[in-house]
Task: structure prediction
Amino acid sequence: MKLSYALPLLSLQFLSPSSTNSGVVLASGFSPIKHVTFTQNAIVSRGGSQLSGTALESDVGPSLGVVSAENWDLLSDRGKAALSRLILYDVANGHAQKHVYGDWPEKGTEDEEKRGIAEQIADLDGSYPGGLPAYLSKARTLLKESADGTNPFAEFEAFVPEGESLSYEDPDANPHTGMTFSQAEQAGLTVIGDTVFVLVAGGLGERLGYSGIKLSLETNLVTNKSYLEMYSKYIQAMQRMAHIKTGKDHIRIPLVIMTSDDTDPLTRKLLKDNDNFGFDEGQVTIVKQDKVAALSNGNAALSMKSKWKVETKPHGHGDVHHLLYREGLVDQWYNQGKKYVIFLQDTNALVINSVLPTLGVSIEKGFHMNSICIPRLAGEAAGAIARLEHKSDPEKSLVINVEYNQLDPLLSSQGDCKGDVADPNTGYSPFPGNANNIVIEMGAYERTVRGEDQGVVIEFVNPKYKDDSRTEFKKPTRLECMMQDIPKLFQKEMGSEAKIGFTMFDRWFTFSPAKNSLEAGVEDVSKGGKAPGTMSSAESDKYVQNQRKLKMAGVDLDVTTEEDLVLVSGIPVTPGPRIILCPGFSITQQEVMQKIQGGKITKRSTLVLEGEDLKVKNLDLDGALVIRTGHDCDVTVDGLVVRNKGYELEEVVAGADVPEEVAIRGYTMKKNEAMEIVINEPGKYHIGADGEVKKL
Ligand code: UGB
Result:
């Protein structure tokens, strides 16, 4: 990908409901009921309409005769308040929720359970902006539109958008930004001390077949570093560079991790067990997203897990913006003068390559939001960035992510009606793929999330219907939201001032997430799929991108091509060399080019390099070599010759009883022999052909 494009200034006026054939979305903030608070004996409506007036008593249950006074007295004040709101809403909206409160046994029977469900209703009410009635009201509208088959794209036509494009291996400047890849990185470096990172990590690894948290998985079996450690070390390498560049040792780059009930305890444990991976106390903040109520039918009836428990489900990564706002973090960062917030997903180790150049493009182009994109395979489970042009009102046109399940129906209904197919000339979908890592400018972000919607992004429903009557669901559904939908809020708060763009990188450089189980990956490969998205393909792609970086720096080695890949447990992976360049060695192209000079590495070899002042010249490697050097260690390796048995992959025998993390990868790493050099004492060192470390 070489071309650079001019991204048209977006006219961000798009706020109408949108959906796919199967899913429907609705902008937030439409609820008639808002900010209802309980004060002593009354429920007061602030900004709402339906609940104002004298009917708002805290004894709604008994006064409407739907819960006995004795049962009502069992409940806490917050339980009464939340249940009152639910009942009032329900009475006005068709009694779809009566099963929750309408047939309680007399006092003395299941009293704890009554208190329990009222508390749960209060929790659900308190965790959703506008409360549970707002949630149910939105859900009803969306479910109706979904059942009616409303096509939100009916007024729009999708076109391939224009954006910036940068290639690591292309020495030429992007004609649009006037910057080479390396220059974009250098531009990014100017703001590193003013960045903030957010990891969305509330998702379960269900598709991956892993019951632990994905952040704890090892990105590779050479260093065995987990995803969380890898992201942490990258952020700390940036911070260290900010100290060196500015002389300001007090700079701290904050990390926020969004967890969910499913991932919270294990994420906290992972951090605690590893001394916060080197972060200072207070530098990492965890915000936990709440689950939302599951719905069992088109009337948005609450789905019950049992008589006394409402079923809940994850709301999606879109929660992140409201949570950051609600916890006061956006305000805090804005007041501290932070300039960019960088959103990353949990299992894409390659993304760190593109953070700096994307920041550089954001600065150069003045983008308020910049999505990291990749060439997309047709039919791939990755969203696509599209320019949606409104058929009659150009003001409503915008560039936005169209989720993968929405793209095919949309494209099948327009143009050549071929759907989500590849361009025969490139082999890729003509639409850029959304890697879902986003760089947002802090000023615009602060302005947007403090707007009416408080960062609550547009939601959608995607019920799976039992039959064509579209009345019953196969399983309960819920409202969902996605973080990449924030442009609609930018549009609302900033109008045509908002500049939304994307930066496209080569896939090998920035995108190889671990999302799918080995079985799903093998099936995909058997159908000709080229991106199985397994733990093993993610690991392999990490080695390959480092092969390419070293090749470009002048090392004599074989870069794995598609033909060279070997099948391990059914997934094509690199035969080697396996190379890990730690963030502590390089976070920019310039560093790799300056620190590496010549040398050769055989295919069966393994190499790990870590150290901010480590230079490696004319290395001759056939085996495994690990060099780790600490801060203020100026180390030059010159002409080192390494010959040893090295490391090798051992395939897991099909059906073998192995731990989950091994099963999803399909192999283990046998570490036969390696040369390891570790230097932590500050000073100047030289390492020659025989590997002897000499302090100068
Ligand atoms: N996540 C949360 O933090 N909370 C949640 O409730 C759900 C998820 P998935 P998916 O990279 O190819 C996204 O499930 O469905 C976190 C984009 O929408 O991996 O593959 C979770 O922990 C899509 O446009 O997302 O789809 C993880 O870190 C495309 O870009 C992240 O959110 C696709 O990713 C993503 O969750 C992709």
The pocket of UGB is lined by residues 200-203, 258, 260, 314-317, 345-346, 381-383, 401, 403, 434-436, 482, 513, 515 (CB under 6 Å). The two ends are 46 Å apart (CA to CA).
